[in-house]
Amino acid sequence: MKINELMVSEETKHALFDMGYEEFTPIQEQAIPLLQEGKDLIGQSQTGTGKTAAFAIPILEKIDPENRNPQAIVLCPTRELAVQVADEFKKIAKYKHNIRTVAVYGGEPINRQIMAIKRGAQVIIGTPGRTIDHITKRHTLKTNSITTVVLDEADEMLKMGFREDIELILQTIKEKRQTILFSATMPKPILDITKKYQNDPILVKVKSVDITADTIKQEYCEIKASHKVEALSRLLAVHKPTRCIVFCNMKSRVDDVNDALFVRGVNAEKIHGDLKQQLRMNVLKKFNDGIINVLVATDVAARGIDVKEVDLIINYDVPEKAEYYVHRIGRSGRAGLDGHAITMVTNGDKRNFISVMHYTKRTIEKIKIPTMKQVNEGKISSFIQEISETIQNENLEDYKDIMNQFDTIYTIEDICASLIKKNIELEEVTYENDINFKGKSNNNMNTKSNKSNNSKSKKHHKGNKNMVRLFVTIGKKDHIKPKHILGAITGECNVSGDTIGAIDVLDKFSFFDVHKDVADKIINKMNGNNINNKKVSVEKAKSSK
Length: 545
Hints:
Elements: H1 10-18, H2 26-36, E1 41-44, H3 51-62, E2 72-75, H4 79-92, E3 101-104, H5 110-118, E4 123-126, H6 128-137, E5 148-151, H7 154-159, H8 163-172, E6 178-183, H9 188-197, E7 202-205, H10 208-212, E8 216-222, H11 228-239, E9 244-247, H12 251-263, E10 268-271, H13 277-289, E11 294-297, H14 299-302, E12 312-315, H15 322-329, E13 339-345, H16 350-360, E14 365-366, H17 372-393, H18 397-403, H19 412-423, H20 453-461, E15 467-472, H21 482-493, E16 500-505, E17 510-515, H22 516-526, E18 530-531, E19 534-535, E20 538-540
Helix pairs in contact: 2-3, 3-4, 6-8, 11-17, 12-21, 15-16
């Protein structure tokens, strides 16, 4: 259905055209006419299908601008989604006069929200906890004029423990209302709510396979847990995404991965539930504006956020539930654009990954982690392309004169090679650079787990005649962890993580094993350098001299 075919006001059509709409998505085409008729609706669809506009358009069309009291409430699981939905409402209502939307959520001073509601707001978008606070505790949100309630990402709200708050909110609103529910999945608790609080709802369903199958290239690689950071760095270096989201299962993992990317010089930032709201919104803005190109996130923090043209998703962890996989990769390949998703699979992840393939009904292609040689080839290719574009598009006459200022003992080749070395630092390629999984593997993804990859790695390195033990003047008293030492060495010395072995952090100093080929390089680079903002000395341990 084209925008012009929709029976809505000219103001709404004008706003939709401004937003780049030309025609509706399947969920919008099916849901909008039903909602305009006043029907209760259950919308089953994944992230990225355009469901916000599907309920925002009919809600805004029936708002009475003369009545400044709340007439619609939209409940969302997270602060980010509440802000995004509120922004969508404001864009669609751009040319409608006297219609105001207010977002209410935790992490922001409640007095500011109270004042915004008192000034008059017909649409309230909020998280359940803060909304119930306004309704029942502070009595700042009156529900007597509310005619529409939307439960957005209902399954996620129930997983987060909001069922009691949701039911309490619904009980405070008159029964003669339109109740709209959107959910990616339909577990029993969702069905219970629909039976209890909806009136003959109509189900509109868009299957996940219809969303992702044709637009997203899906791949996976088998990897040791101890090599995951190195593998992530190489994937980013070779694929060079404009925008990439790296998904982790835990907030602590997000912190660790973001720190590891930072020391490697990757332009990344993180987002998870422990960060303050303003910081999270600032990070999202930088990501959308292209100031940063890698976002490390948890599922909950990224659920429902509005991000533009993500061309690569990397699942650093296999998601704990198969449906989360669809939510994650759905961030890429939107609006008909090509997307790409790569999942890292360790021995312990295989059972979950099999569930993902069963859920999506797809065979996901196995790939190899790029070698250091391929990383170097990627750097060289990008540099050549950049230089070629400069030659073709820029005026270089003033710069050619500088060539005459070089001593005649230098050839053009010498000068060019020096400039290239200044601009691209090639990785050291050794026989140990290949970190692709060497263990027994098969297409059936055998789920028998092995012993800890980390303990195997340390056992392999200790006592290895190719390894050298180094001493560093920093320890537990300096709040140092092995990850700090590993990150500093790989970042400052430009060596790969697989050349580093066991790291033992003691009270006042530490020991770590490195491959003999890079030992002198690390000693020279790290002596007088900083680890965790403390200047250190590094030398061979006495047993290694």
